[in-house]
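User: Here's a structure from my thesis project, written as structure tokens. My advisor, Dr. K., wants to see whether a designed sequence matches the one we expressed. Can you design one independently, without my sequence as a hint?
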């Protein structure tokens, strides 16, 4: 468990280990937010940074398109850097991943707390452990409902709805956009059409990137490794270690949990949260029970494979590994209907 917690908090820094040459201009910290004159100089000098950047990464949240300077950055980047990449990074994806990791961690903690308090290792103990996961699953559905709102916000974008602090800034932004795009209406059409398609091209599916799914699965992976280490320390025969290591530690706690994570994302993302909160709770319960049935199907297969033979464990490990690979890369559920909403 400590390994999983440490991995979770260090994960944002892993990309720096691979590529130390990257640098980032983050406007909220790179532009003076206290001195008005220095802030104005920084804002009006954005064009230089945008033209020299390889990529504009949008950390999207609900108020983004209502901030005129954020809209200006979009317009300026595509004009000053036509070959640059615009990467859409909605914050609800990271929040959803954090919810799932938290749910898995809470389930393990509750399971062991109940087991220690009651002395039981039964289905009842597992049922107690699923309670915090249900709460997290319901929160995940609420969080992913923002995805549909993103589609709507971009399709219904209105430049006049975006605001900024000063009238002079607004005039400056409007004049720049008219100069770049010919008219304000042309820019609005660009955001609703080509820009929307470009930003959302990689977000039509419901699956998480493989590295996110692996991170979310770390509480269960470390649990499987702990159990395997206990068997090694107890002097279990080598065929038992191979069978448990492949069938349970890797196949069940590793690969199968990655599949479960992607399945939970599929259920949470495919079924929109209704406006009626009570009906939404009932829906979440029904979807969660389906997810629980999916989880236990893997548990029963993994347990059978481990108890049956080394060959069965290896087969289960290979099958669950293939499913995890497909779910995290090749098994993307497209939602073309969203394009027309």
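Assistant: Designed independently from the structure alone:
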């Amino acid at each position: 468990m400590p390994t999983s917690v440490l991995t979770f908090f260090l994960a944002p820094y892993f990309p720096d280990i691979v590529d130390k040459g990257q640098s980032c201009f983050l406007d909220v910290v790179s532009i003076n937010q206290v001195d008005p004159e220095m802030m104005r100089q920084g804002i009006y000098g954005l064009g230089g940074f945008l033209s020299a950047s390889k990529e504009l990464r949008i950390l999207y949240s609900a108020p983004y398109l209502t901030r005129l300077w954020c809209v200006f950055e979009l317009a300026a980047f595509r004009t000053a850097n036509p070959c640059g990449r615009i990467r859409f990074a909605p914050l609800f994806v990271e929040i959803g991943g954090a919810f799932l990791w938290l749910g898995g961690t809470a389930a393990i903690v509750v399971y062991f707390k109940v087991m220690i308090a009651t002395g039981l290792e039964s289905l009842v103990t597992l049922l107690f452990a699923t309670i915090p996961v249900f709460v997290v699953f319901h929160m995940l559905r609420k969080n992913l409902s923002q995805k549909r709102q993103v589609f709507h916000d971009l399709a219904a974008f209105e430049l006049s709805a975006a605001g900024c602090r000063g009238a002079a800034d607004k005039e400056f932004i409007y004049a720049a956009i008219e100069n770049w795009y010919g008219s304000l209406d042309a820019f609005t059409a660009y955001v609703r059409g080509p820009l929307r398609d470009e930003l959302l091209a990689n977000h039509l599916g419901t699956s998480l990137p493989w590295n996110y799914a692996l991170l979310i699965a770390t509480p269960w992976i470390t649990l499987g490794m702990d159990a395997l280490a206990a068997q090694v320390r107890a002097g279990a025969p080598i065929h038992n270690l191979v069978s448990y290591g492949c069938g349970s530690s890797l196949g069940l706690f590793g690969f199968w949990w990655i599949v479960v994570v992607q399945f939970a994302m599929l259920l949470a993302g495919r079924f929109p949260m209704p406006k009626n909160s009570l009906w939404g709770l009932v829906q979440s319960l029904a979807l969660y029970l389906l997810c629980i049935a999916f989880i236990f199907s893997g548990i029963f297969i993994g347990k059978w494979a481990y108890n049956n033979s080394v060959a069965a464990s290896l087969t289960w490990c290979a099958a669950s590994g293939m499913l995890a690979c497909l779910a995290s890369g090749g098994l993307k559920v497209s939602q073309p209907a969203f394009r027309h909403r």
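When you compare it with your expressed construct, this may help: The beta strands are 55-58, 85-88.
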